[in-house]
Amino acid sequence: MSSHLLPTYARVDLAFERGDGVWLTATDGRRFLDFTSGVAVNALGHAHPHMVAAITAQAGKLWHTSNLYRIPEGERLAERLCELSFADYVFFQNSGTEAMECCIKMARKYQYVSGKPERNRIITFEGAFHGRTLAALSATGNKKYLEGFGPNMPGFDQLPFGDIEAVKKAITPETAAIIAEPVMGEGGVRVVSHEFLRALRKLCDDNGLLLIFDEVQTGIGRTGDLFAYQHTGVTPDIMGLAKALGGGFPIGACLATAEAAKGMTPGTHGSTFGGNQLAMAAANAVLDIVADRAFLDEVKRKGLLFKQRLAEIRDRFPSVVAEVRGEGLLMGLRMVPPVGEMVDELRNEQMITVAAGDNVVRLLPPLIISDEEIGEAVKRIEHACARLAQAHPRQGDPAAKQGAVA
Ligand SMILES: *Cc1c(COP(=O)(O)O)cnc(C)c1O
To answer: Are 228 and 236 in contact (CB under 8 A)?
Structure first.
């Protein structure tokens, strides 16, 4: 494969030319079951008629005018997002990392205009992922991603995940905020306990800190609620969104309470493309469908059904699957053999998935998936596990003796 694309991705030699619901058609004509969804982006699958109609109608009217003028489509989207969440204000960008940059800037500015400029440090957690721009990378704290890119951006204190005593000890008079993902997606589909999130909320309240949730991956229905925080009993002050918000069109958003946003006055932040008419049309169309409680209840139901089937697979193939994790349709299998082998086996089954940290394969179907398609996925996962069980037998493993599944 030779290409002029900067080689920062170890790409699979596979390209797709069209999509339809949860199915992708490769350039060689093969059809794949999409359990990646562009990494939690295509919530409504591919070529959803409502999305196609909304984008097409907007494309014929107006794409972009800049933020120097009012953008009614964006005012409408912001109003809807605020009605559906804790927030009073929304700032639109084009990606998840930009959304998190806005969250970070806003939290520092809040402390500054509250007369506490020394409060500019932010507590983050190991295994989190917040994006690839320099501040978001420093918040992420992954040494592999930071190496060679010069000095780490100061002002982040990274702590072990789930250790509330460590958080208490790390809070100083310089702490401004805490950033957490309700479910760590890239970090291996690790569901953060509600108790831990509640304890973070209390620490923030007691110490005058802002609580920031990174819902870039969990937001917009993925976990069975519009936002994952909604079933934790904990409300953040600031929240980052992106991935599924545009259903495949690039868009990010930073949502905040009026109090948290009080320092963000004219001139303090900006974006050329952020919130343009085309992006707003895409996101409004996504919300038309995903924000419906009946749709979200279906995501929950399908998530439970899928999780149950995955648990059966884990029981049958203990030498292959160590653990089933996740909420809603953000599912993960912690593998016994290297996760890359599972991703490859599933691709051989014409099902695409994506690896995460902690040796986990993420299973992220479009939220519109049917029960039948879940059944089809389960069959393919069983086949992949059967082959891996043969390659990695363990004594007393019935699947290894049987050899293959029916
Ligand atoms: C993907 C992701 C990001 C970064 O989003 P980009 O659009 O790639 O910049 C940030 N936070 C979380 C939790 C993510 O999953």
So the answer is: no
Alpha carbon separation from 310 to 133, 322, 333, 392 (Å, rounded): 35, 11, 8, 19
CA–CA separation, 264 and 107 (whole Å): 10
d(CA 242, CA 246): 7
CA 153 to chain centre: 23
Please give the domain boundaries of the chain with CATH numbers for all domains. 16-34+297-402 (3.90.1150.10), 50-290 (3.40.640.10)
Kindly report, residue by residue over 62-74, the tens digit of the pLDDT: 999 999 999 999 9
What pLDDT, in 10s, does the model give residues 208-227?
999 999 999 999 999 999 99
What pTM was estimated for this model as a whole?
Answer: 0.96
Kindly give the number of the ligand 1 atom that is closest to the alpha carbon of 184: 13
Q: Is the CB of 96 under 6 A from ligand 1?
A: yes
Residue of 92, 100, 364 to mutate, ligand 1, most atoms within 8 A of C-beta: 100
